[in-house]
Structure formats: structure tokens, C-alpha cells
Amino acid sequence: MLKQRVITGVLLVLFVLVVVFLLPLSWMAFIFAGVAVLGVWEWASLSGIHAQWARWLYAAALIPGLAALWLLCDLGGQPARAQVQPWLGLACVFWSLALFLVKYYPSGADLWRFGVIRALMGWLILGATWLALIFLKTMPMGGLLVLLLLILVAAADIGAYFIGRRFGVHQLTPAVSPGKTWEGLWGGVLAVFIITVIVFQNLPPTLAHLRIASVLLLAFAVAGASVVGDLTVSMLKREAGVKDTSHLLPGHGGFMDRIDSICGAAPTFALGLILMSY
């Protein structure tokens, strides 16, 4: 199982690097749209949609939404930040609300137990993630920004895993994910802090207007949003009584099991860059 997990993980990393750095924006948008559709297909089971035809119909319904975002935000040309900001802001409002849903689970589950509410959540989460990643790619040094986002998310996850395993005592959200601890959370924050300081020390002169306090604030927000994304999907899986969202990725479960943290972090990172006048 470990060997299979490692092989799949390496292939996923190579896949992302090729898509982000070697393919044109339109191809990146198309391929990531395919991943988003697969993620929504997996989300269907978390929404109580189990018939295969209904799951694929629900997933296919995301495609017109992504096409509309591509056109409305002019992602294929020179997207105006004012066009993208409201959609990213809506996603960040959702993740702020999700923080409270996770904190008060299961007592607050009545707010989202309706299948239609969970179905709408899936479209919003995957659509906003796709928008954020494509928009990041259109920005100056866009490929590096996408890579930095993934590194920050990975640092938060790896730091939380090792520190939590070694020092973890106090559970973060026992009703949602008993294995996660406050010590692990702060371990992830520490890892993100180290990565952010290294990146800040090597910023190009064109970004000299950025201040370390603002950059660190954004990095910590991204780390926090990645944790909320992870916990939100864990909450939905616990409610649905499943361990993985699917078995599409050998050794890893489904796409949502791998990108749940990115779903929270990507809109936060993109919106933060806009507000910082990157």
C-alpha cells in the first residue's frame, strides 16, 4: 500500500508540474476543469446522490458554470481583478462559515444536512478552486504562484503530521477528525512560517513594496484555510459514513481526499494577493 501511495503521489506531482509550467493556460484550464468535474462526481456521494447517472449529471452541471466564469472573468485574456474578486470573496465567506460548522459539529449539522445544500456546496467549492488556480496562473509569475500555494499547503500538512504525531495531545476537532491536534496545527503554522520567510527573503525587486507582516498574514490565512478545507471534507465524509470520497487514486482515495486542503487555500491565497496589490 505504501509503495502504491508513493508512486501515485509522485505521478500526481509530475502531472501538476507539467500542466502548470509546460501547457498553455487554455489547456491548464481544460485539464483542471476535468479534475473539478471528477471532484464534484465524488462529492455527489457526500450529498446523498448515489445513482451513477445522477452523479454524472450532477458533475456535468458544473461545466457550464466553469465556462461562464471563464467568459465573465475574461480568464483567457487579461482578467480584471474587480471581476474575479467577488467570486473569490464569496468562496472565502463560505470557508469562514465552514469553520463554525466544523467547530460545532454535529450540533450545527442541521444547517447543511439537506442534500440540495450539500450539492450546492460541492459546486461552489470546486468552482471557486478552479477559478482561483486559473486566475493565479494569469498573474505575473503565475506558475510560481501556483507552485508556492501547493508548497504552503504541503508544508502546513507535513508540519502538522510530524509535530502532531510527536507532541500531539490536545484534540483539535474530536467529533470530526480525532487524529488532529492543536500541537499539530501549530506545527503546520511553524512550517509555513519558515517557508514564507525563505520566500520573502528571495522576492524579486518588482515586489519590494510587499511587507513581511502582510506576507506572513496571508501565509497564515492560507494555512488556516487549508486546515478548514481538510476538516470540512472530513466532516462530510463522517456524516456520509465513508472513509474516502472514491478510489480513483490508488493508495490515496479520491481526488477530493487530495485537494480538500487546496480547495480552502486557493481562493484565500488568490484573494489575499489581490488585496495586497500583488
Features:
two-stranded antiparallel ribbon, 74% helix, 278 residues, mainly alpha
How much strand content do the residues show? under 5%
**Count of DSSP-assigned helices:** 10
Mean pLDDT value: 91
Helix content: over 70%
| Class inferred from helices and paired strands | mainly alpha
Low-confidence segments, given as residue ranges, are none
User: How are the strands of the biggest sheet laid out side by side?
Assistant: 1-2
Distance linking N and C termini: 42 Å
Integer-rounded radius of gyration: 18 Å
The major beta sheet can be summarized as: 2 strands, antiparallel
Kindly state the number of beta strands: 2
The shape is globular
Order of helices and strands: HHHHHHHEEHHH
Task: Tell me the count of domains.
Answer: 1
